């Protein structure tokens, strides 16, 4: 993550604004999470995320206070797209890495798995499985306004479907999903999706509505001319950082420092262009989809084994691993989650004529959800004043800040988690 600070000399004092969010991100952009908007009301879309979850897989077994195994056939019970038996033995923690191991079993076995529940009693089915694999999901569900990232080296054998993604589901009433990186090695494709649906009753159990889907790799990577990997197998030769930035108004997907996709909650009614919150103006007509992911979601790391056939340009394509496949591994170096801090307890503070810097302290801090500066402030030599707000800092007309010698004032706005977020 690239963090920058901007310093502007205004009159006789220094104004510093930290960690602002750039609303522009085109395919090929280098990752930059900074922007500066200076005006009478300082822009409120500045972010200070804090690390709230981290697993570097330094032990010798999976930390089951953070993760659980997905067993034994978590999806696709009809084996339309994938078929493998999920086992804890295929998930290893060693050498400072999480390893999800895909194996062709030397003697295919009959596996029993639940396909439905009636009154909490499982209805089981069974099938012959040629492959085994592993999958884990976080026990914690993370809310909107977070950054989720992992450093991963994906497997690249033909016929595998590894993924790093998030999902949330409450029974069959609501479904959310964000796919940061889902790979289909049989056709050299990586895609990112986001789904959300409140009905979840249509054909095949898939949401009836989803965000715009983009395919980033086909035979060559055509749209992102700045991305250094033109073929998927080149990307899979090494570790990369895969990142989801999930905000109230958009979802951004990154590979290393390259933005590869964005999904918008708000779109212009005229030209369908994506809009960020700070693009919205009073009276502006926008489209707001009902299916923007907003409920809490857990993190999933897995590698599925593809099954079945695709109709391609050159005929029928067998999606299954090649006959000489024996095993491959998905390596995960770490998983981290950053979230917004709790909101300041005080709603509004007005810095009026009664403000006086404590002469016995070199540093003074004022913090609230909204701060109004409506007076002249003077800082003596060597003093530092920091003003922190969650929503906005309003500098009223006629207000001024004067400093003496090596003194400094910092204005700092950080969005926070309100009760509704």
What are its keywords?
single chain; 421 residues; mainly beta; Jelly Rolls; 2 domains; seven-stranded antiparallel sheet; 1 helix; 1% helix; elongated; disordered N terminus
CATH class of the largest domain: Mainly Beta
CATH topology of the largest domain: Jelly Rolls
> Which structural class do you get from the secondary structure elements?
mainly beta
Number of strands: 30
What do you see in this structure?
- The chain is mainly β and 421 residues long.
- It folds into two domains: 5-47 and 343-413, no CATH class; 51-266 and 292-339, Jelly Rolls (Sandwich).
- Helices cover 1% and strands 48% of the residues.
- The chain is built from one helix and 30 strands.
- The chain has one helix spanning 232-235; strands spanning 5-10, 13-18, 50-55, 67-69, 85-86, 91-94, 97-118, 121-133, 135-138, 146-153, 160-170, 174-184, 189-197, 214-215, 240-246, 250-255, 258-264, 266-268, 274-275, 286-287, 298-305, 309-312, 315-318, 327-339, 348-351, 363-373, 376-379, 384-395, 400-403, 408-413.
- Strands 3, 5, 6, 7, 8, 10, 15, 16, 17 and 24 form a ten-stranded mixed β-sheet that branches. Strands 4-9-21-11-12-13-14 form a seven-stranded antiparallel β-sheet, with no helix packed on it. Strands 25-26-28-30 form a four-stranded parallel β-sheet, with no helix packed on it.
- A hairpin with a 2-residue loop joins strand 22 and strand 23 (315-318).
- The longest helix has 4 residues, at 232-235.
- The protein is elongated and about 80 Å long.
- The two termini are 24 Å apart.
